[in-house]
Design brief:
Layout (H helix, E strand, L loop, with lengths): L2 H9 L3 E8 L6 E7 L4 E3 L14 H11 L3 E6 L2 E6 L1
């Protein structure tokens, strides 16, 4: 889904949380948005249906903040924590 569509859904109160997870075999991060009905929505690139990858956790957090999230859940293997964005 595109960032603008996710922002509209966020404003409608659809999402429960936003998760940042590392991408396997790459040095990057991806954002996953968890809806209240437990559906997982990923952020796609603007010009294709490929999942958007961020080079840094800061970049992913900046997009989550721009969408409207105050907290970002970070998952690395078994470790989990929340960051204020």
């Amino acid at each position: 889904m595109q960032e603008r569509e996710i922002k509209l859904l966020f404003n409608a109160g659809v999402f429960e949380s936003c998760h940042a997870t590392p991408i396997a075999m790459s040095r990057g991060w991806t954002l996953k948005f968890i809806a209240k009905d437990e559906n997982v929505i990923t952020l796609d690139l603007q010009r294709s249906k490929k999942e958007r990858e961020f080079k840094s956790l800061d970049g992913a957090a900046a997009v989550a903040k721009r969408i409207g999230f105050e907290w970002l859940n970070v998952h690395i293997g078994d470790m989990e924590w929340q960051e204020k964005v």
